[in-house]
Amino acid sequence: MYKMEQTYDLERLIQQNLHIHTTYSPCAKPEMLARDIVNMGVKDDIRVIAFTDHYNSGDFPILDTNRKLKKQAEECGTDLNVLYAAELSAYGVGKFLDTPDINEALDYRLYAYNHYHLDYWEHPEDKSPRGYVQHALQVLESLFATSRADCIAHPFIGRFIHCFEDKTLVTKEITDSELGYILEKGKRSQVAWELNVPALFADPEFSKRYWRIGKEVGVVFHLGTDAHSMAAVSTSQHLERLKQLLE
Q1: What pLDDT, in 10s, does the model give residues 75-109?
Q2: For position 163, what pLDDT does the model report?
């Protein structure tokens, strides 16, 4: 289990990148090799990174691939803290793709609950923005009732709901009260919330609400760039824009 201490200092938050995909994620570019990612992290003055390859199939040998990543990363001989993790799947209410053995073996458990583009993902019967908000809250509550998660990946975004042309409909639908309620639930369950850099910039109005209410509730935020390319590993490149957006 990994969770950073509570801070709302963006200069400290960019010292982590806890959402990085390697070549073991089919959507990542061929350049995403462990040694090169580690070297980029060191160059960018990042202190901790997490390899979070997609765990979208129960057949994916995540522990084997993490062992290979660890061997490659350790050859760099740096003092960068590397977490061998996964982007796990909470694909419905009370439905989790990873087994307890896999879950317990990971350094960091980043859960996606909104990968609705995957064919096995549960959808609400009511396929309206309100229906998807309610479904998200139900899935998250069922996840918080377990001890499986360390952090929630790209929370609340509607990017993967293909029936909506406007990807901000879901974030516009969730109320401040609902947002505060579920953020508090996560906090009580000792689960952090991701500041997913691309998602923040894609929906600035919601991002400001998420940041403000998260601070009011007192949640722990983790920062990740959802890197699928080497150019996306750096966090410092986003600092000034994040300050303009959130402060």
Answers
A1: 999 999 999 999 999 999 999 999 999 999 999 99
A2: 86
CATH fold for domain 14-246 = TIM Barrel (3.20.20)
Confidence (pLDDT) at 3: 82
For residues 190 and 146, is the Cβ–Cβ distance under 8 A? no
Q: pTM of the entire structure?
A: 0.97
**pLDDT > 70 in the chain, percent:** 100
Q: How would you write 96-129 as a 3-class SS string? A: ECCCHHHHHHCCCEEEECCCCCCCCCCCCCCCCH
| Domain edges within the chain | 14-246
Distance (Å, rounded) from C-alpha 99 to C-alpha 57? Answer: 11
Q: How far is CA 77 from CA 16, 38, 71, 74, 235, in A?
A: 19, 10, 11, 6, 22
Burial class (CB in 10 A: 0-12, 13-18, 19+), 168: middle
**Average pLDDT in the chain:** 97
Walk across the sheet containing 81-84 and list its strands: 16-20, 48-51, 81-84
Q: Which helix (H) or strand (E) holds 145?
A: none
Residue 203 confidence (pLDDT) above 90? yes
Checking 94-101 for CB contacts under 8 A at 24+ apart, the result is 94/142, 95/122, 96/143, 96/146, 96/148, 97/55, 97/56, 97/57, 97/58, 98/55, 98/58, 98/62, 98/148, 99/58
Longest C-alpha distance within the chain, in Å?
Answer: 52
Task: Give 113-124 pLDDT, tens digit per residue.
Answer: 999 999 999 999
